[in-house]
Amino acid sequence: MSFSNDNATRFSADALVEHLKSAAEPSRLRMLKLLSEAELTVSDLTTILGQSQPRVSRHLKLLLEARLIRRRQEGSWALFRLAHDSPQGALAADIVARIDPVDPELSRDAERLADVKRKRRDEASAYFSANAESWDEIRSLHVPEPDVEAAMLRIAGDRTFSAMLDIGTGTGRMLELFAPRCRSAVGIDTNRNMLNVARANLDAADLAHAEVRLGDVANMPVARDAFDLVTIHQVLHFLDDPAAAVAQAARSLAPGGRLVIVDFAPHDLEFLREEHQHLRLGFDTATVNGWFEAAGLDNARAEALAVDGGKAEGQLTVMIWAADDPRIQIADDNRPEAAKTEAA
Are strands 182-189 and 161-167 parallel, antiparallel or unpaired? Predict the structure, then answer.
């Protein structure tokens, strides 16, 4: 939304004055600029701004009350970001866009923000390196990831998605892959270390319209009927009840939305269960189609990606399944915002 956009939300004069007052303080304006570019903690902001924790918290409270920013709890962490999903946040984004980019104080803030992001990347890289060997072992057993990703892009469809949800986002790779096709994207994962990896990757790719959250498929911190693309990439084989996960994913689809699942065809590589915590050794298409049908989805289809046409011994066949929400697609302006944090 923009001041110059005829479709922008209109505020009463009194409300507009109050919102502008909330932003009209140097420290709070600096915070808005920072939170338009990254999701940050109080500790991050105190480091960047060089201010005390109580002072930063007071400023955040005022911005929250004005709904210019939003707060999200992740375990013991409180994370703050510009409220891109609200009219007030859109107003704040317009204000931030009018700031002189060469302002000396904001330039220093940008340098410190870069340091915070660099620290995140270093910590994420250390975790990733510690686990990379086991991931590489599994990847060596199937077709190259670029082939899988190309097939996912094709099956998802050549269109722009209003909102995407990636369940079990891991490194955030699916968010990076689909970012050019999405206006907003959210990834959820139960592993805080992986969320740090994903945040570092999104920072490095400068994907401000993508974010990640702590949560699992049984209790997703997102709204229902909000996403026109949902992906579940190499997650179901870790779950005790994959059918329930598919049902939850289907509930998050907006009318006309598409669910894309990537996992393995049935196999007998028992070491994946013993050494890599795979609870399921693949899935057959009839089973997945049954989950789709039970979740009220239609237009199910499947594609197999196998090494040497599936003849290579000890290799995994990657399956891509997709199905659609059968309800008539509604206009974007009437669709629930993807960034709502309340689970419906």
Answer: parallel
119-161 pLDDT, tens digit per residue, is 877 775 665 556 656 666 777 788 889 999 999 999 999 889 9
- Span 294-327, pLDDT tens digits: 999 999 999 999 877 655 667 889 999 999 999 9
Residue 122 to residues 42, 84, 116, 136, 200, Cα–Cα distance (Å): 20, 28, 10, 20, 8
Instruction: Give the span between the Cα atoms of 155 and 159, in whole angstroms.
Output: 11
Q: Which residues, at least 6 apart from 215, have a Cβ–Cβ distance to it below 8 Å?
A: 188, 189, 190, 221, 222
- Alpha-carbon distance of 262 to 169, in angstroms, equals 12
Band (12; pLDDT cuts 50, 70, 90)? confident
Residue 257 phi, psi (nearest 5): -75, 165
- At 309, the amino acid letter reads G
Question: DSSP per residue over 196-244, as a string?
Answer: HHHHHHHHHTT-TTEEEEE-BTTB-SS-TT-EEEEEEES-GGG-S-HHH
The C-alpha atoms of residue 344 and residue 265 are separated, in whole angstroms, by 33
Return the structure tokens found at 331: 């206009």
How far apart are the C-alpha atoms of 146 and 117, rounded to whole Å?
27
Give the integer Cα–Cα distance in Å for 253 and 173: 20
Quote the pTM value.
0.69
